Amino acid sequence: MKVEIPGTVVSLDMVRIPAGKIEMGGKEMPVESIWVGRHEVTWDVFDIYAFRLDLTTQQNADGVDAESRPSRPYGAPDRGFGHKGYAALGMTSNSAEKFCEWLSKKTGRKFRLPTEAEWEYAARAGDREIPSKLDDYAWYWNNADDKAHPVGKKKPNEWGLYDMLGNVWEWTIGRDGKAVVCGGSYLSKAAEVGFETRKPFDPKWQEADAHVPKSKWWLSDGPFIGMRVVCDP
Questions:
Q1: In the chain, how many domains are there?
Q2: Is the pTM of this model over 0.85?
Q3: Residues of the chain with pLDDT under 70
């Protein structure tokens, strides 16, 4: 499914995954059929939200949506890795959730971050183990040269989803309702890249942020954090 963003030439490519079950923490959990982003959210889409590219000059001057849009990032938002076709990165979980709210309003569909269970279920696509040839599916420590890469350049999983492992960690909503990142990144060693790999927010991701309070939009030291969205049917 292609979801067009009104007023732009940008769209999101979504894949419908089947309903099923997944075991987490010794408990079997049902997962409904949902639409999952074929790729991690790229700058092509995130720029429109973050830099108010969908607003007129007058709307920007009037501060339209000022409370629900990110402040200016620290330096180059893509950290010099690349922009067009690259995964958007360095956003906080608040920024990721606000992006989903904006996207929902723009498209008229319900976008959100995946739950931890939905993410793992989609990432596995029926597999019990990670691919034996991890280099074919993921950008990680061994092959990424310490940088993020354009999305969709490795092989997809069985459901047609790219970069579920590696490239950038992806924000999800954990079982306790708090945001956690999943899957590993371009800085992760092979043992840390996996379906069950999780990390809660780490204050070190904002260590260089001298603001008080620290930004609720950007991670000054988190260029390895990104996101993928899901859409309810």
A1: 1
A2: yes
A3: 56-67
